[in-house]
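Appendix B.2, paired examples.
Example (i):
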Amino acid sequence: MKRSLLFLACLFALSPVIFAQKDVIRIESCSDAQIQHQVDSLKEFYSKDGFILLKEASVAMQSEYELPVIVPLTQGSWYQFVFIGDYTSKLYEVRMYDWDEKMVVYQKKQWGDVDGNIISYSYIAKFSEYHMIKPVQVNKHKKNLCGYVMLFKKSAPPNESSSGTK
C-alpha cells in the first residue's frame, strides 16, 4: 500500500516534466534576400581562398536568444565560421566553446560597424572533439529574425609524397 502511494506521488511529481517535452524548440529555416546575397558572396570568397563548405543553415531566431550549433572539429584542421544576422539588429555576438565548456572564441559586432551583421572567424582545432557555437542577435523592433550560419574547412594542400617526388 505504501509503495503504491509512493509510486502515485512520484508519478504526479514527474508529470510536468513528462508533458513539458512537447515544448521543444525546433530549428526552422527562414528566407531573407539580403542575407542570401551576402551568403553567395561569402561562399565565392572562401572557395577562392581554398575553403570548402561543410555545413550551412538558414535559421529562424528570436531576438536575445542564443542559437546553439554543435559541430565536430578535427585536430589541426583550419576552420572558418560565419554568422550573418538580420541587418536591422543592433547587436551580434558569437561565442564558441570546446568540449570542456571553455570559451575559445568571442566576437561582438554592432549595427554601425562596416560589416556589422556578419561575424566571421578562423579557428584551428586543438583537439578532435565537438564544439558548441552560440550566435545571438538583439533587435528592438523584431522578435523573429533570420540568421545564417556556415562552417568552412580549409582544403588540405596536395601531399608532395603522393606525386612520387620527395
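Example (ii):
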Amino acid sequence: MAKFKVVTPSGASFTVQGGGYKLEMEALAPLDAEIVEIAAKSDDDFVKQARDADALYAKGRRITKRIIDGLERCKVIALGSVGVDSVDVAAATARGIPVTNVPDTFIEEVADHAMMLILATYRRVTTMDRMVREGRWAEGRPLLSQFPRLMGQTLGFVAFGHVARAVAKRAAPFGVHMLAYDPYVEELVVSQHGVEPVTLTELLQRSDIVSMHAPATDAAHHLLTEHHFRLMKPEALFISTGRGPTTDEAALIKALKEGWIAAAGLDVFEQEPVDPNNPLLKMDNVILTPHAASASARFDPVRKRRVGAELALVLSGRWPRSCVNPSVLEKSSLSRWQPYSMERGPGA
C-alpha cells in the first residue's frame, strides 16, 4: 500500500481519456504516492471512495462543498488549468486546504489564439473563405472596403492579467491604440505595457475591438451585460478567450442580431460544449473555436508535470508554487521554501 493516496475523478480533462499518469508520477513516485481514479455518478459516491485521500487531483467533474467537506485528511486540491471555477475554493479555504492551479504554463498559446481571433474577425476571414468556396469572388473586396485598416484602431482589454499582457505585446506592432480595465491591477503595471488604464464604461465606448479576459469568479459573472453591449460602437468587435460565464451570452446574441456590435470571435461559451440550437452557430458574423486556445503539443506534458510537482510539494510538507487561496498557507503546518519577494519593499 502506498504512503500517500491521491484521488482523481476517472476520465480526463482537456485531453484524451486513457493517457495514464506517467507525467504526474515523475514527482509523486519518489514519495511513494499513488493516483487512484474514482468512477462515481454522485458526490456522495465520490466521497465514500475519497474520504481517506491525502490529496485530490481535480479534473473532469465539479468539486463541490459536499465533496470537500467529506475529505477527512486531504492536504491539497490540485488543478491542471488556469481557471479554478470547477472547485469550490471557499469551501476548501474554510477547511484549510490549499488549492493549486497552473497559471503560467500556456499563456503564450492563449495569447496567440486571441490575436488570431482579433485578426480573423477584423478581416472577416471565415466570410471571405465562404465567398471563395461559393463562387462569390467579386463580393470579397467590396465587403472589406467598408472597414478601416487595423492600424490606428483601438483595442480594449477587459481584465489585464498574463494573457491580456501577452496579447498587448503581439498587438503593438499592428499600430493599435490599447486600453485596459482591471480594478485588481495597478495603473503603473498597465501603462508600462503601453496600454492606457481606463474605466469599463470608457473602454467600451472608445474601443473598436473589445477583448475579454476576465476569470470565472463570482465578481466577474456576467461582467458584460446588455447594458454594456449597448455602450459599444456599432462597428465594434467582441473577442473572448477567457471564460464563457463572464459574458451574458443572451445579451451578446441580441447585440449581434440587432447590430449593436458588428461581429464576434469566441473561444468560450456559457454552456460547453455548445448547445446545437445556440443561435451563435448560425451567425455569419461570428467566428467560433471549441475552447481550444490553450492547446498545443506542449500543453499536456507541462501541465501534468506541474500538477504532479504541486501535489508532491504539499505531500512532502512544503508550500505549493501556485496557490489560489494563499491565506491557508500561513495557518498550515507546511513550511515555506520560496524566497520572499522584495519588489514591494521600502522605497519601492
